Amino acid sequence: MATPGKSGPSKVFFLWFFELALLVGCVRLSGSVRFMHDPAGYLEFSNGLPWRAALFALVLCVSMTAFGLHHVYLRKNRFGFILRELYAFLFGGVALLVIYYLFPDAYIGRGVLIASLLLGFIGVLTLRMVWSTVYASPTLKHRVLVLGAGETASFLERRMRRANDRRNFRVIGYVPIADEEIKIDSSLLVRGEGGVDQVASLLDADEILVALEDAHHGIHMESLLAAIERGVRVCDLPTFVEREAGMITLSRLDPSWLVFSHGFDHSLPRRLNKRAFDVIFASLMLVLAMPLMLLTALAIRLESKGPILYQQMRVGFHGANFSVIKFRSMRVDAEKDGVAQWAKRDDDRVTRVGRFIRKTRLDELPQLVNVLRGEMSLVGPRPERPQFVDSLNEQVRYYSMRHSVLPGLTGWAQLRYPYGASVRDAEEKLRFDLFYVKNHTFFSDLSILVQTVEVVLMGKGAR
User: Fold this and answer.
1) Which parts pass through the membrane (predicted)?
2) Which residues form the domain of 206?
């Protein structure tokens, strides 16, 4: 997802390129070994090899993206990565078999396919280990000097303290200012003669992160201008968190930052390409999912009496209400008192079939009709019920801004945060929803849609 000045996506682009080239090489190497003693066979195999190898590599790279392996902000350990890679190669292998069945000319042969998948798995794993070791080196991270050591600066230590949160940068110190209550450990403080520009020069900082209360901003402006003249980048806390963490910080956010920052593209071209994206992909998904939807409907009818589908009022674009369509996953009398309730873990109102279709997200498939109607988009903030929205608008600052785009079948918050079932959860998810509202593009929508495959297959966030 595009944000200004961030280094993470550029790394992902290069990683994608290297893995694509590596997988192409795996096909060529597998073919050379397979036909080592069969020159005539290799000659036939090599006919059209460049595009067939490129197709193999492209399908696997897309599959790895779908399982979050090219996710800029993903937190993952080594075991988690290996598991994701295994799922990605299995899924990619099945996708390739389907493609080969439909387009026989693309087939590279059973032996070469198996060998290429095995070599590719080992090669990608090795490349990632080298890649993570290289980029984990402090010398390749940009050096950040924080101006401020009070409550605002402490946000960095509270919310971005993990190594995965700091994969692109290294904090080299906090510069305290006068009349500020220190909230940072003394071992992290740095002091020096002159302004922050001189401290930055002394410590060879690449960037100064301004983490001050609004009242102190003007006092240090001359020093910050001097730092810019020396080639040191200057960034405020909301922009920095947006760039490095893929979310909007709410507690330290001034409305003027939202007003004057770039983003919030609601232009006619963007609206048209988003609508075209929704109609094309929703129609395709509806056709492909129809057998699953028919089986789901049958299972619901066999388990309990009552409607197969149900409609529920939700808040959509610009706060307008609409009826969302879902497969019924609860008892008919789940809300017999008419009072809306947050979903909870191990909810006893959920039926046995309902528990399965929630886990696999099959209950959401009828919402493709909402997408085709123009009431929802494939990608956007998830729509909430009016009763919850009224309460959240009063309790959570900027909550109404999520309604400036169409609600979605899936969204950035669904990839980054587990199921929300409280006011606090809603506030946490809003950080990611606002990031999407501010930065959504055609390619970010495509990326989120592809990565949702992992959420569905691994059953993340369902209740």
Assistant:
1) 12-31, 51-74, 86-103, 109-131, 279-300
2) 139-248
Residues in the chain: 463
- pLDDT at 339 (0 to 100): 61
Q: Where are the beta strands (DSSP E) in 376-456?
A: 377-379, 408-410
User: CA torsion angle for 179, 185, 190, 191 (degrees, to 10)?
Assistant: 30
Residues 123, 190, single domain; the answer is no
Domain boundary (136, 151, 183) is at: 136
Helix (H, G, I), strand (E, B) or coil at 313: strand
Q: 421 in a domain, yes or no?
A: yes
The CA distance from 426 to 322, in Å, is 20
202 and 322 housed in the same domain: no
Does an H or E element contain 309, and which? Answer: strand 309-315
* Strand order, beta sheet including 233-236: 169-175, 142-147, 207-210, 233-236
- Between CA 117 and CA 29 the distance in angstroms is 12
Report pTM. Answer: 0.78
Residue 147 sits in the same domain as residue 131: no
Q: What digits encode the pLDDT tens for the residues 319-368? A: 999 999 999 988 876 665 556 665 665 666 788 998 899 888 899 999 99
